[in-house]
Amino acid sequence: MSNSAPQRVLRGRRGECGTLDQVVAEARAGRSQVLVLRGEAGVGKSALVEYLAGNAAGCQILRAVGVESEMELAFAGLHQLCIPMMGHLDRLPEPQRDALAVAFGLSAGSAPDRFMVGLAVLSLLAEAAEEQPLVCVVDDAQWLDRVSAQTLAFVARRLFAERVALVFAVRTSTLAPGDAALAGLPELVVRGLRDDDARALLDSVVPGRLDERVRDRVVAETRGNPLALLELTRGLTAAELAGGFGRPDARPLASQIEQSFLRRIGSLPDAAQRLLLAAAAEPVGDLPLLRRVAERLDIGADAAGLAEAAGLIEFGARVRFHHPLVRSAAYRAADPGVRRDVHRALAEATDPDFDSDRQAWHRAHAAVEPDEALAGELERSAGRAQARGGIAAAAAFLRRATELTPDPARRGKRAVAAAQVTFEAGTPDAALELLAAAEMGPLDEVQHARLTRLRAQIVFARRRGGEALPLLLDAAGRLERADEGQAREAYLDAIGAAVFAGRLGGRIGVQEVAEAALAAPRGPQPPRPADVLLDGLATWFAQGCVEGAALLKPALLEFQRAAGRNEDDVVRWLWLTWLIAGDMWDDETWHVLTTHAVRAARESGALNFLPLALTYRAAVHVHAGEFDLASALVDESDTITEVTGNSPLAYPSLLLLAWRGEDARAPEVIQSALQDATSWGEGRAIGLASYLLSVLYNGLGRYQEAVASAQQAGEHEDLAVVGFSLVELIEASARSDAPEVAAEALRRLEERAGASGTDWALGVLARSRALLCDGQAADLLYREAIAHLERSRIAVHLARTHLVYGEWLRRENRRLDAREHLRTAYEMLQGFGASAFAERARRELLATGESVRQRAVEEHEALTAQEAQIARLAADGKTNPEIGAELFISPRTVEWHLHKVFTKLDVNSRNKLRGALGRT
């Protein structure tokens, strides 16, 4: 619907109303707007939302309301908002259309990924806004179900050039999923009215003259909260007001307001109270359904009129409460037996062919005794919810199914299943409670082992330390007797946990875990990629890198082959295969697995996996000297983790920081990240931070500090740390006149790099040997290193090899030869953005007598990371919708960015982009 009659400015809200007017004006002009109205209950957020809707002339108004009782039903809030736009569904790209149809239960299919659903909602809003500007208002957003909250937050962060305004009203500090998901969006804090406005409002609702002292006391104690001023004074005399405020045991303001509503509800006849309860328990606002419920409960037609006359509810096209606190008051105040009767009537009145899951949910709330048939129906509802991507809803269904299961053995099995889904839904505390409940019943060996493994996974997800190790080893031992495949996966989990625990792992180290894994059964035949990986990794830690490398090479090749046909294995074990490939100096596996992982994650929109894939891909770009591309992926990963509420993945940003070497605060930033990681027991972070510091200090020419950092990094067998740190240690020791330290580091490097045999490994090995040699031997080794690294993807080490070779040539008084390699190093490193290493090359060039030209001032304004990413995709021939689908933005936003790109690069067509990008 659209509105044409503007509403007058609310009392005391001129500033807030002006902000909302500006939101609408900007959206009409094609500049998307997002705003979160945040304030305590009753402060006037809903009134501001109504003002916004009433003053959005010429705009279509879309509404949704968060409902506390629907918080566990996936996509419930999103469905409310999108219903009026479903006529545009067929205009969306097929993957988006299918994802949204499955999410809303319009069609069957595998679980849609939330990012694909988010992109579909973004596209739907953009399509609808082409016809008419949209104003979307979401009231009580703190009570949105988790998936809807995350999806709308995702959309809000990607609205840019659409005629869309998205406004949320959220209660202050509820710690609910909706509140957390909206953190970081533009906010307008709605505070209480100023004293003069509050007094005027109070005077307008209190009959007769109010004693000024009483009035001032009421204003002070309500803190200018409009609803409190209106509701708490309703029906009270001045004398009652004087004695009713300022109680030393006064409840919180929201509770007081709810009590006011409770008094009004309690004054209604029984039938009207039951009708309000039914409306509160049926959050969709379906009037025909409520009428059917009223018939079943023998509620007469006059009940609705009485409830409306009391100013508590409206029965229009949809049922709407006067205020969300009325809903909660009506539901919480009801007798439990009456509440069950209402849920039973709602279940009977709900069409099972249209909404079988909500029918089952109402039946579950009506049940008192265990009921296997109902528990089974809830279990099936959980399966359907999970198929739609509603993990939180599936967890809620399974938890209630567990409670209603009469048989102890079956109840324990369902409790374990409920715990698994609850953990995946992001509520580990509730998952642990379910596991504790499962342990109270009879469990067979397999169930007990799976329970132990799940508990260990929860512990590891919380703290990447050694606390999970004993549990994982216990689970693996139990599974050996029942499921060898799962046992081996548990051992692989255990080795990974030990790797991350590192030197903080306590009495159980990675070697002990590896030895236990080697003694485990061989598992399924033929072996899966994970089985080959386990054998190689266990051998690496138990018997040495040479023996382990012989097994890990075929394992990594197997994962490369699996990249095109078995996505699950690549996704499931990327966190380990990436680290192993790093220790094997295997840049090809890095490239293949991360390329596939990012592509697969984008195509499916994998919510939890995409940030990890982007992180590892960003590190590949850093080593390839593509710092800007890495930075764009880091920004994208950070945006996603902010939306989902997961911990940010700091490694690639710290890696960039170290290689750039231009931030004076870099050592402090790296040390701060180290403290954060070690606080939860992640000992590997000690080695990783020390390695990054050694890179930083080598770039800055602070070689003694680089020696100390690299030595600390190599003290423990941390995957993808030790080998890299040995390279830094050899260079720093050679420059610090510490030949014994360098020689020992070279001995260790020769063993590891020789076991790998890749061009990357042989290149850094030859360079390291050259640093410790003289004469013709050094010259030949430097040339060998360059030849190997030119065949690899590791451009940063190729550039550094030109640098150290040029430095050596200058000391050998071969100035012309030195200039050639130093110039190459300088141009490469400066082009990458490796400022500290580039400065080393510049100083050396000056020492040869060559004047170094400063980089020319850019003819055009620099592209942002996102503009550069869009420009590259457009240059590759992708259309705006294809670019939008890949980057999770709308085609209109792509068009807006490309317009800026064309202006900055001074081109007028996509055909000229590739050449312009090459020049910049």
Offer a few descriptive terms.
920 residues; two-stranded antiparallel sheet; mainly alpha; 5-stranded parallel sheet; globular; disordered N terminus
Uncertain residue ranges: 1-6, 237-253, 856-860
Structural shape = globular
The value of Rg in angstroms is 32 Å
Helix content: 55-70%
Main-sheet strand order equals: 2-3-4-1-5
Structural class based on helices, strands and sheet pairing = mainly alpha
Could you tell me how far the N terminus lies from the C terminus, measured between alpha carbons in angstroms? 49 Å
Q: Give the percentage of residues in beta strands.
A: under 5%
How would you describe this structure to a colleague?
By secondary structure, the protein is mainly alpha-helical. The protein is built from 47 helices and seven strands. It has a five-stranded parallel beta sheet with strand order 2-3-4-1-5, with helices on both faces. Strands 6-7 form a two-stranded antiparallel ribbon. Strand 6 and strand 7 (319-321) form a beta hairpin. Mean pLDDT is 85; it is low at 1-6, 237-253 and 856-860.
